[in-house]
Design goal:
Blueprint: E1 5-12, E2 15-22, E3 31-36, H1 49-60, E4 63-68, H2 84-100, E5 106-111, H3 113-128, E6 136-140, E7 159-164, H4 172-180, E8 186-191, H5 202-214
Parallel strand pairs: 3-4, 3-5, 5-6, 6-7, 7-8
Antiparallel strand pairs: 1-2, 2-4
Helix pairs in contact: 1-5, 2-3
């Protein structure tokens, strides 16, 4: 079965959102995943190399993966909205994904700014209705420099933090101390890499992602 790749536009709260949907090569998808990209004001797009590797790792594990550009990025309509609007873009993309695969569980994943977006969205959905919650939220390169973390209070959706050992925006010591304050279930995994963008370790990042979601 050839890998399915579909370029499409989704209806977003500020206009259409440019998106890319990929399915596994060798079987029907067993789960769906939404992947969110880094900060749009700092060059983040759905084609970011870390986002690409996250998506590929998820797809290798048998997931259908949807990536999209936030409002105002490339062909997506609208303007940057200080994180709140981008979270609503992610919500719209997730609604599309769940309508496309209504019988499948889903994972949320994001890199850097995108990790904050998926954590916020995942915790909101879990607190609002556990049955509508994500199977897991994978936060890659979580930026500890942002101190507004009230959205994580009381959140018990399974959270996995994947961090470079030399992440300049989320150092090992800071992320470790932060994670200790969170309720279970949670997991912190460090990947030996040169910087925030997992330079020198993109293969390892992809493999780690694939292994994390491979287990039934």
């Amino acid at each position: 079965m050839p890998r399915k790749i579909e370029s499409l536009f989704l209806a977003g709260p500020a206009g259409r959102l440019e998106a890319l949907l990929e399915e596994p090569e060798d079987a029907a998808p067993r789960e769906a995943a939404l992947v969110c990209h880094p900060h749009p004001r700092h060059g983040g797009t759905m084609h970011n190399k870390v986002v690409h590797r996250i998506a590929r790792g998820l797809r290798r594990a048998g997931l259908a993966v949807l990536r999209f550009n936030y409002r105002g990025v490339h062909l997506s309509e609208g303007n940057y909205a200080h994180g709140e609007g981008e979270k609503e873009d992610a919500r719209a993309a997730l609604e599309y994904l769940r309508a496309r695969y209504p019988e499948l569980p889903y994972t949320l994943a994001g890199f850097s700014f995108g990790s904050r977006v998926v954590l916020q969205l995942g915790c909101e959905l879990q607190l609002g209705c556990a049955r509508a919650g994500a199977r897991r939220v994978i936060a890659v390169g979580f930026p500890t420099v942002y101190k507004d973390r009230a959205y994580l209070d009381g959140c018990t959706v399974p959270r996995i933090f994947l961090q470079s050992t030399r992440d300049e925006f989320g150092p090992v010591e800071e992320l470790t101390a932060f994670a200790q304050t969170l309720p279970e279930p949670k997991q912190v995994i460090f990947v030996e890499a040169q910087d925030h963008f997992f330079t020198g370790a993109l293969d390892k990042l992809e493999e780690t992602i694939a292994q994390l979601v491979a287990a039934p």
